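[stage:ingest] chain + small molecule (pyridoxal-5'-phosphate)
[stage:ingest] validated
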Amino acid sequence: MSRPPNLERFDTMTNEKLRIRRDIASMSAYTPTTSLEVFAERLGVAVDNLIKLDANENPYGPSPRVVEALAELPNMQVYPDPESGRLREALSDYTDVPAEQILCGAGADELIELILQLFIEPGDAIINTPPTFAMYSFNAPLYHAQVVDVYRRADFSLDVEAIQQAVAQHDAKLVFLCSPNNPSGDLIAREDIKALLELPATIVVDEAYIEFAEGGSLANWVGEYPNLIVLRTLSKWAGLAGLRIGYGLFPRALMPHLWKIKQPYNVNVAADLAARVSLGDVDFLLERVRQLIEQRQRMEVAFAELPYLSPHASQANFVLNRVSGMSAEGFRDRLARAGIIVRYYQKPRLEDRIRISAGTPAQIDRLLEILRALANNEL
Ligand SMILES: *Cc1c(COP(=O)(O)O)cnc(C)c1O
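[stage:predict] done
[stage:export] tokens:
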């Protein structure tokens, strides 16, 4: 991708002149997923011919009631409710956690950053358990947190003992866990989390994909443990990724401090309304979730039958596969030329892996058709 010329000029300007933080000046950039339009332009194909299975987005989009409600969104000129009061009541009904222990954010991503702001003083350590969601370690340097990576085992299960040792050794304040884990798709065993909750650290469990799993939510433990935070989002199951709305379930003692540091108008009026309408249409949305789980299961079976893919069992809306007989990166590029976008990571333990999100039945039909053609060397 070529970059705007004015940016190039800034790159060559010395930091002496810019005077931005030196650690940020030398930081490498995070590459987030991009929009359908940008992919289409890059690949030279029409948007309608692309199948985007790289970011675990909901291919069905939001509830139709959300689309109707937003078409008549009132009071856009007025700031939103800084407490997201009505939304938090609706989330309380949905999660069975008191509204006083719920805080909303512009996506769960914002809450990850807010947690770092609340806990981290320069030099404090956080525990990250790769391969996992990149956002925990991505935000950490901005707050001068030291990121201690405790790698998962070869089967992607948590190495509880190693986490316990690392917390003690580095006096870590936060442990970030993802369950079901992105990108491997497995749920963390409850006994593992129970053991980690005994540590003198706050355990943050990111449940972005919990609606796709069979049980496993720790929401009802939040009242019990003073050091457990559960993060949730409406991005995936409710199809609201583009509107940015997530929430956290927090121990009571943290709430007054979170309220002090939260940006007052972080949740915009459209996201607030869309989330409330979604929570009023849960049965409909969870039926679509069920359909996506069905497609994920279908993918797992079909991928296992291909000579070059080995799927890892998933409890989310995506499947991580080992690719053999060709490079995973090359596999991604071949699929892209056929109009299918999947996720490849240039990261330790994932060099030979590809993550593919669940799509509609028609999208998965097409995906499997392409994959079988690839197996027969017809592509
Ligand atoms: C997608 C994702 C999120 C992002 O949630 P937002 O509410 O869209 O910010 C958080 N955690 C994990 C593990 C994710 O995969």
